[in-house]
Protein backbone atom coordinates (compact mmCIF):
# COMPACT_ATOMS: atom_id res chain seq x y z
CA UNK A 1 0.00 0.00 0.00
CA UNK A 2 2.89 2.34 -0.70
CA UNK A 3 0.94 4.64 -2.96
CA UNK A 4 -1.52 5.66 -0.25
CA UNK A 5 1.22 6.74 2.08
CA UNK A 6 2.33 9.65 -0.04
CA UNK A 7 -1.24 10.89 -0.41
CA UNK A 8 -1.79 10.79 3.31
CA UNK A 9 1.27 12.79 4.29
CA UNK A 10 3.49 15.17 2.38
CA UNK A 11 5.95 17.97 3.03
CA UNK A 12 7.31 20.99 1.20
CA UNK A 13 10.60 22.60 2.14
CA UNK A 14 11.77 26.14 1.47
CA UNK A 15 14.78 28.16 2.57
CA UNK A 16 14.52 31.92 2.89
CA UNK A 17 16.46 34.53 4.89
CA UNK A 18 18.28 32.01 7.03
CA UNK A 19 15.16 30.00 7.87
CA UNK A 20 14.37 26.54 6.56
CA UNK A 21 10.63 25.98 6.73
CA UNK A 22 9.18 22.50 6.30
CA UNK A 23 5.40 22.56 5.83
CA UNK A 24 3.62 19.37 6.86
CA UNK A 25 0.39 18.29 5.24
CA UNK A 26 -1.92 15.42 6.19
CA UNK A 27 -1.45 12.74 8.82
CA UNK A 28 1.91 12.17 10.48
CA UNK A 29 1.44 8.73 11.98
CA UNK A 30 3.44 5.53 12.28
CA UNK A 31 3.19 4.78 8.55
CA UNK A 32 4.34 8.29 7.56
CA UNK A 33 7.18 8.44 10.10
CA UNK A 34 9.90 6.90 7.87
CA UNK A 35 9.14 9.40 5.07
CA UNK A 36 9.19 12.30 7.50
CA UNK A 37 12.52 11.17 8.98
CA UNK A 38 13.97 10.99 5.44
CA UNK A 39 12.92 14.58 4.80
CA UNK A 40 14.28 15.87 8.10
CA UNK A 41 17.55 13.91 8.39
CA UNK A 42 19.56 16.08 5.97
CA UNK A 43 18.11 19.30 7.44
CA UNK A 44 18.72 18.69 11.13
CA UNK A 45 22.50 19.17 10.86
CA UNK A 46 22.34 22.51 9.04
CA UNK A 47 23.62 24.99 11.61
CA UNK A 48 23.53 28.28 9.68
CA UNK A 49 19.73 28.42 9.52
CA UNK A 50 16.75 28.10 11.86
CA UNK A 51 14.65 25.00 11.25
CA UNK A 52 10.91 25.59 11.42
CA UNK A 53 7.94 23.27 10.96
CA UNK A 54 4.75 24.85 9.69
CA UNK A 55 1.87 22.70 10.96
CA UNK A 56 -1.04 24.64 9.48
CA UNK A 57 -2.07 21.75 7.20
CA UNK A 58 -1.17 18.95 9.61
CA UNK A 59 -4.36 17.03 10.35
CA UNK A 60 -3.11 14.40 12.73
CA UNK A 61 -0.13 13.57 14.92
CA UNK A 62 0.47 11.05 17.69
CA UNK A 63 3.40 10.00 19.89
CA UNK A 64 5.26 8.73 16.82
CA UNK A 65 5.52 12.22 15.32
CA UNK A 66 5.97 13.95 18.68
CA UNK A 67 8.86 11.54 19.37
CA UNK A 68 10.54 12.56 16.11
CA UNK A 69 10.07 16.26 16.96
CA UNK A 70 11.65 15.59 20.35
CA UNK A 71 14.69 13.86 18.86
CA UNK A 72 15.16 16.81 16.46
CA UNK A 73 14.85 19.23 19.40
CA UNK A 74 17.59 17.32 21.20
CA UNK A 75 19.88 17.31 18.18
CA UNK A 76 19.36 21.02 17.44
CA UNK A 77 19.76 21.95 21.10
CA UNK A 78 23.12 20.15 21.12
CA UNK A 79 24.20 22.23 18.10
CA UNK A 80 22.86 25.49 19.51
CA UNK A 81 20.57 25.78 16.51
CA UNK A 82 16.93 26.71 16.65
CA UNK A 83 14.05 24.35 15.92
CA UNK A 84 10.44 25.36 16.48
CA UNK A 85 6.90 25.06 15.17
CA UNK A 86 4.47 27.61 13.77
CA UNK A 87 0.75 27.80 12.93
CA UNK A 88 -0.08 24.87 15.19
CA UNK A 89 -3.74 23.75 14.97
CA UNK A 90 -5.60 23.71 18.30
CA UNK A 91 -6.00 19.95 18.65
CA UNK A 92 -2.29 19.47 17.96
CA UNK A 93 -1.28 22.23 20.36
CA UNK A 94 -3.30 20.42 23.01
CA UNK A 95 -1.19 17.28 22.51
CA UNK A 96 2.02 19.32 22.67
CA UNK A 97 0.89 20.79 25.96
CA UNK A 98 -0.27 17.47 27.40
CA UNK A 99 3.01 15.72 26.62
CA UNK A 100 5.13 18.68 27.69
CA UNK A 101 6.96 19.18 24.38
CA UNK A 102 5.35 22.64 24.05
CA UNK A 103 7.73 24.19 26.57
CA UNK A 104 10.79 23.02 24.60
CA UNK A 105 9.45 24.67 21.44
CA UNK A 106 8.69 27.83 23.41
CA UNK A 107 12.24 27.89 24.80
CA UNK A 108 13.66 27.53 21.29
CA UNK A 109 11.45 30.17 19.78
CA UNK A 110 12.24 32.70 22.51
CA UNK A 111 15.98 32.02 22.71
CA UNK A 112 18.43 34.35 21.05
CA UNK B 1 -33.46 -2.50 32.47
CA UNK B 2 -31.12 -4.35 30.19
CA UNK B 3 -28.59 -2.15 28.49
CA UNK B 4 -28.27 -2.95 24.83
CA UNK B 5 -24.84 -2.91 23.32
CA UNK B 6 -24.19 -2.64 19.64
CA UNK B 7 -20.85 -4.05 18.64
CA UNK B 8 -18.70 -3.42 15.58
CA UNK B 9 -15.64 -5.59 15.10
CA UNK B 10 -12.92 -5.08 12.52
CA UNK B 11 -9.92 -7.28 11.98
CA UNK B 12 -6.90 -5.86 10.21
CA UNK B 13 -3.30 -6.79 9.45
CA UNK B 14 -1.19 -5.40 12.29
CA UNK B 15 0.79 -3.03 10.08
CA UNK B 16 1.28 0.73 10.23
CA UNK B 17 -0.57 1.22 6.92
CA UNK B 18 -3.87 0.06 8.44
CA UNK B 19 -3.98 2.23 11.55
CA UNK B 20 -5.67 5.03 9.61
CA UNK B 21 -8.47 2.59 8.70
CA UNK B 22 -9.13 2.24 12.42
CA UNK B 23 -9.28 6.05 12.72
CA UNK B 24 -11.74 6.26 9.81
CA UNK B 25 -14.03 3.69 11.41
CA UNK B 26 -13.76 5.44 14.75
CA UNK B 27 -14.66 8.75 13.14
CA UNK B 28 -17.77 7.27 11.54
CA UNK B 29 -18.99 5.55 14.68
CA UNK B 30 -18.19 8.36 17.12
CA UNK B 31 -19.76 11.05 14.97
CA UNK B 32 -22.90 8.96 14.55
CA UNK B 33 -23.06 8.76 18.35
CA UNK B 34 -22.86 12.54 18.69
CA UNK B 35 -19.30 13.02 19.95
CA UNK B 36 -17.82 16.44 19.25
CA UNK B 37 -14.98 17.09 16.83
CA UNK B 38 -12.56 17.59 19.71
CA UNK B 39 -13.63 14.42 21.49
CA UNK B 40 -13.19 12.43 18.29
CA UNK B 41 -9.70 13.90 17.77
CA UNK B 42 -8.82 12.78 21.32
CA UNK B 43 -10.11 9.27 20.71
CA UNK B 44 -8.31 9.01 17.36
CA UNK B 45 -4.97 9.57 19.07
CA UNK B 46 -5.73 7.20 21.97
CA UNK B 47 -6.86 4.37 19.70
CA UNK B 48 -3.96 4.88 17.32
CA UNK B 49 -1.51 4.66 20.23
CA UNK B 50 -2.94 1.27 21.16
CA UNK B 51 -2.75 0.12 17.53
CA UNK B 52 0.81 1.48 17.16
CA UNK B 53 1.83 -0.59 20.16
CA UNK B 54 0.38 -3.71 18.55
CA UNK B 55 2.08 -2.96 15.23
CA UNK B 56 5.45 -2.25 16.84
CA UNK B 57 5.67 -4.81 19.60
CA UNK B 58 3.08 -7.59 19.47
CA UNK B 59 4.38 -9.75 16.68
CA UNK B 60 8.06 -8.90 16.33
CA UNK B 61 8.92 -9.83 12.73
CA UNK B 62 5.91 -12.09 12.15
CA UNK B 63 2.71 -11.09 10.42
CA UNK B 64 -0.22 -10.76 12.78
CA UNK B 65 -3.65 -9.28 13.17
CA UNK B 66 -5.19 -6.59 15.31
CA UNK B 67 -8.86 -6.79 16.19
CA UNK B 68 -10.67 -3.62 17.09
CA UNK B 69 -14.07 -3.79 18.79
CA UNK B 70 -16.27 -0.72 19.10
CA UNK B 71 -19.04 -1.10 21.67
CA UNK B 72 -21.74 1.51 21.53
CA UNK B 73 -23.09 1.93 25.04
CA UNK B 74 -25.95 4.19 26.08
CA UNK B 75 -23.68 6.96 27.28
CA UNK B 76 -20.21 5.91 26.17
CA UNK B 77 -18.06 4.39 23.47
CA UNK B 78 -15.82 1.52 24.44
CA UNK B 79 -12.98 0.57 22.11
CA UNK B 80 -10.91 -2.56 22.50
CA UNK B 81 -7.67 -3.22 20.62
CA UNK B 82 -6.66 -6.86 20.83
CA UNK B 83 -3.67 -8.76 19.51
CA UNK B 84 -2.51 -12.32 19.85
CA UNK B 85 1.16 -11.54 20.01
CA UNK B 86 3.71 -11.71 22.72
CA UNK B 87 2.93 -10.03 25.99
CA UNK B 88 5.63 -7.48 25.64
CA UNK B 89 4.79 -4.04 26.95
CA UNK B 90 7.66 -1.61 26.71
CA UNK B 91 5.29 1.35 26.60
CA UNK B 92 3.61 0.43 29.85
CA UNK B 93 6.90 -0.32 31.54
CA UNK B 94 7.99 3.15 30.49
CA UNK B 95 5.25 4.21 32.86
CA UNK B 96 3.33 6.68 30.77
CA UNK B 97 5.88 9.43 31.11
CA UNK B 98 5.55 13.07 30.16
CA UNK B 99 8.14 15.72 29.46
CA UNK B 100 6.91 18.08 32.16
CA UNK B 101 9.51 18.78 34.84
CA UNK B 102 12.23 17.48 32.55
CA UNK B 103 15.17 19.12 30.85
CA UNK B 104 15.43 18.52 27.11
CA UNK B 105 18.63 16.52 27.56
CA UNK B 106 16.93 14.02 29.87
CA UNK B 107 13.58 13.84 28.07
CA UNK B 108 12.77 10.26 27.03
CA UNK B 109 11.63 9.71 23.44
CA UNK B 110 9.43 6.73 24.31
CA UNK B 111 6.58 6.35 26.76
CA UNK B 112 4.47 9.27 25.55
CA UNK B 113 1.97 7.00 23.78
CA UNK B 114 0.72 5.27 26.86
CA UNK B 115 0.48 8.56 28.73
CA UNK B 116 -1.58 10.13 25.92
CA UNK B 117 -3.92 7.16 25.84
CA UNK B 118 -4.67 7.52 29.54
CA UNK B 119 -4.94 11.29 29.40
CA UNK B 120 -7.31 11.35 26.44
CA UNK B 121 -9.78 8.68 27.56
CA UNK B 122 -11.96 8.41 30.66
CA UNK B 123 -10.93 4.85 31.39
CA UNK B 124 -8.12 2.62 30.09
CA UNK B 125 -7.58 -1.01 30.98
CA UNK B 126 -4.72 -3.16 29.75
CA UNK B 127 -4.97 -6.92 30.12
CA UNK B 128 -2.11 -9.17 29.20
CA UNK B 129 -1.98 -12.90 29.35
CA UNK B 130 1.18 -14.69 28.43
CA UNK B 131 0.80 -16.47 25.12
CA UNK B 132 -2.60 -14.93 24.51
CA UNK B 133 -1.71 -11.41 23.64
CA UNK B 134 -2.77 -8.04 24.92
CA UNK B 135 -6.17 -6.41 25.14
CA UNK B 136 -6.44 -2.66 25.64
CA UNK B 137 -9.93 -1.36 26.46
CA UNK B 138 -10.61 2.37 26.41
CA UNK B 139 -13.83 4.15 27.30
CA UNK B 140 -14.89 7.68 26.50
CA UNK B 141 -18.14 8.91 27.95
CA UNK B 142 -20.55 10.90 25.87
CA UNK B 143 -20.97 14.46 27.09
CA UNK B 144 -24.04 16.41 26.27
CA UNK B 145 -22.34 18.74 23.86
CA UNK B 146 -23.50 21.48 21.56
CA UNK B 147 -20.67 21.13 19.05
CA UNK B 148 -21.70 18.10 17.01
CA UNK B 149 -19.91 16.79 13.94
How is this structure best described in words?
The complex is a heterodimer of chains A (112) and B (149). Chain A has 112 residues and is of the alpha/beta class. Chain A has a single domain, classed as 2-Layer Sandwich (Transcription Regulator spoIIAA). Chain A has five helices and four strands. Chain A has a four-stranded mixed beta sheet. In chain A, helix 2 (33-44) packs parallel to helix 3 (63-79) and helix 3 packs parallel to helix 5. The relative contact order of chain A is 0.15. Chain B has a single domain (6-141), classed as Histidine kinase-like ATPase, C-terminal domain (Heat Shock Protein 90, 2-Layer Sandwich). Chain B contains four helices and five strands, in the order βααββααββ. Chain B has helices spanning 19-33, 37-58, 90-93, 112-120, and strands at residues 6-13, 65-72, 76-83, 123-129, 133-141. The longest helix of chain B is centred in the first third of the chain and has 22 residues, at 37-58. Chain B is globular, with a radius of gyration of 16 Å. The interface between A and B is medium-sized, with 29 and 31 residues.
Number of structural units classed as domains of chain B: 1
Determine the strand fraction of chain B and express it as a percent band. 25-35%
Instruction: Please state the overall shape of chain B, judged from the principal axes of the Cα atoms.
Output: globular
Using the coordinates shown, work out and report the CATH topology of chain B.
Heat Shock Protein 90
The CATH C-level name of chain A is Alpha Beta
Mean pLDDT of chain B: 87
**Structural class assignment of chain B:** alpha+beta
- How many β-strand stretches of chain B? 5
CATH architecture label of chain A: 2-Layer Sandwich
| Straight-line N-to-C gap of chain A | 44 Å
Give the helix proportion of chain B (percent range): 25-40%
Classified in CATH, the superfamily of chain A is STAS domain
Radius of gyration of chain A: 13 Å
Number of helical segments of chain A?
5
Structural class of chain A: alpha/beta
Sheet having the most strands of chain A: 4 strands, mixed
Low-confidence stretches of chain B: none
* Terminus-to-terminus distance of chain B: 30 Å
Radius of gyration of chain B: 16 Å
Listing every helix as H and every strand as E from the N terminus to the C terminus, the arrangement of chain B reads EHHEEHHEE
| Low-confidence runs of at least 5 consecutive residues of chain A | 1-5
Amino acid sequence: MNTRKSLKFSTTTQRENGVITVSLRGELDLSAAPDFRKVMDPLVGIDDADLVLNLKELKYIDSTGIGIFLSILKARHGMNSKFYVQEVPDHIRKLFEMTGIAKFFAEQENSQ
Amino acid sequence: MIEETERIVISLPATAEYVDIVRLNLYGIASKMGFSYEEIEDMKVAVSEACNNTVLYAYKQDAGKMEITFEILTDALSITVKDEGESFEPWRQAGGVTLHEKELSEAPIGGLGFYLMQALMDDVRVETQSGQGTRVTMVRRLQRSEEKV
